[in-house]
Amino acid sequence: MREPIRNGPIQNEPIQNQFDISGLDLPDILGTIHEEVRPRFGEGRAADYIDALAGVPLDRFGMALVTCDGRVHEVGDSRERFSIQSISKVHTVTMALQAVGDALWERVDREPSGDPFNSLIQLEYHRGIPRNPFMNAGALVVSDVILSGYGQPEQALLEFMRSRSGSTDVGGDEVVARSERESGFRNIATANFIRSFGNIENEVDAVLDFYFLQCSLSMDCVDLARSVQYLARGGYCNASGTQVISTQLATRINSLMMTAGTYDAAGDFAFYVGLPAKSGVGGGIVAVVPHVMSLCVWYPGLDDKGNSLLGRYALHRFTQMTGLSVF
Ligand code: DON
User: Fold this and answer.
1) What is the C-alpha to C-alpha distance for residues 261 and 2, in angstroms, rounded to an integer?
2) What sign for the dihedral angle of Cα 13, 262, 297, 172?
3) Probe target for ligand 1 pocket from 56, 90, 117, 143, with the most ligand atoms within 8 Å of CB
4) Is the N end or the C end of the chain the one with fewer CB atoms within 10 Å?
5) What is the mean pLDDT of the chain?
6) Helices 204-216 and 185-196, interaxial angle, to 10°?
7) How far away, in angstroms, is 86 Cα from ligand 1 center?
8) d(CA 113, CA 135)
9) Torsion-angle region of residue 138: left (phi > 0), alpha (psi -120 to 50) or beta?
10) Could you count the other beta carbons within 10 Å of the beta carbon of residue 323?
11) Would you say 239 and 166 are in contact if contact means Cβ atoms under 8 Å apart?
12) Residues 6+ apart with CB under 8 A from 13
C-alpha cells in the first residue's frame, strides 16, 4: 500500500490573470508561424503503425488559441478534424479524478517515464503501477477507473468532450478505432500485464475498447483548444459555464502535462516550448498558458518521439514571440 497523499484544503478561486496580453498582435503572430512552417510541409512521418493514420497527407497545418476572455484566433486548417489520439488522455484523467479523486494516485504514479509512450519496461519493476496517466499503461488504468466509476462510460466520455468543447457532434471514428485494435498488440499486452498485477478490475477487452474509442475521437484545433480551456481557467469551463474540477486540480493536471505530456520528449518540450502540453500521434498538440489561454496546433508529420514536428516548432515560436512560457 502506498502512503496516502495528504493535501491541504481545496482551492477553488481562480487566480487572477498574471499576464497582460493586450499588447500582443495574436493574429499577426499566428500568421508569421504559418508562413514559417509552410515551406517545411512534408517533414516528419505520419503515424504509420496505425493503418488508418498512415495515409494522412503532410500538407495540413492548423493552429488555434482561445483566450480566457473568450477570443478565438486561428490560422490554416484549424477547422479540419483529425484523430486526437493521446490528447484524450488529458480529458480521461480529469474524468477519473472527478470519479475517485486522489485515490487515483494509488493506481497510477505522477512521474515522467523517460521511456516511449507504449513502453512496458517499467511496469514489471513497479508491480503494474504505471509511471503516469499519459503513457499508454497509465491511460489504460485510467480507462479502467472510468469503466468502474461511470454507469455509461462511453456516453460519459462523449458528453465530457462535447461539454468541454461546446461542439455537440464530437464522436469516435470507427475506422480508426478498428485500426487501433488491429494494430494494438502492445496495448493488448500492456492491459493484460497490468491486469496480472491486479491493477485492472474490468474485462481487459472492455478497457481496451474504451481506450481505442478515446483515441479515435475526431476534433479540430478550435474544438480542442476549447476542450482544455478549463485548465487555463483554474478548472472553470467557459463552454459549459461550470467548474469542472477544483483550481488546485487544474494546476496539478497542468504539471502532469509539463512533466509527462509529450512522451519521452517532455524535458525537451519544457526546454524548448515551456508550456504544459499534451500530444497525440494524430499530430495534434494542446497547450495551456495558465490564466491566459489554451491552444491547439496540428500537423500530422511526427518526429522520432511521436510528437508533431511542426507542432512543436510552432509552439516554440509562439512562446518565443509572445514571452508566454511559464518559466
Ligand atoms: O495507443 C496508441 O498506440 C495510440 N492509439 C495512441 C498513441 C498516442 O497518441 C500516444 N500515446 N501516448
Assistant:
1) 24
2) negative
3) 117
4) N
5) 94
6) 140
7) 5
8) 8
9) alpha
10) 10
11) yes
12) 234, 247
H/E run at residue 74: strand 72-76
Q: How far apart are CA 73 and CA 160, in angstroms?
A: 24
Residue whose CA is at the smallest distance from ligand 1 atom 11: 86
Look at residue 237 in the predicted model and tell me its pLDDT.
Answer: 96
Cα–Cα distances in Å, from 43 out to 61, 110, 296, 314?
A: 12, 33, 19, 14
pLDDT at 4: 57
Task: Give the separation between CA 75 and CA 64, rounded to whole angstroms.
Answer: 6
| The three grid cell numbers given for residue 318, joined into one nine-digit string | 509562439
As a whole number of angstroms, the distance between CA 95 and CA 167 comes to 18
Decide if 272 is catalytic: no
Question: Cell numbers at residue 80, please?
Answer: 479540419
Give alpha helix (H) positions in the chain.
Answer: 26-37, 51-54, 88-100, 121-125, 136-149, 153-165, 174-182, 185-196, 204-216, 221-227, 229-232, 247-260, 266-272, 309-322
Pairing verdict, β 82-83 and 217-219? antiparallel
86 in active site: yes
d(CA 193, CA 120): 9
Looking at residue 307, its amino acid is N
- pLDDT surpasses 60 at 16: no
Residue 1 pLDDT grade (very low, low, confident, very high; cuts 50, 70, 90): very low
Residue in the block written with cell 488546485: 248
Residue 224 is predicted with a pLDDT of 98
From the number of C-beta atoms within 10 Å of its C-beta (0-12, 13-18, 19+), residue 28 rates as exposed
- Kindly indicate the confidence band of residue 160, based on its pLDDT and cuts at 50, 70 and 90: very high
Number of other CB atoms surrounding residue 192 within 10 Å: 14
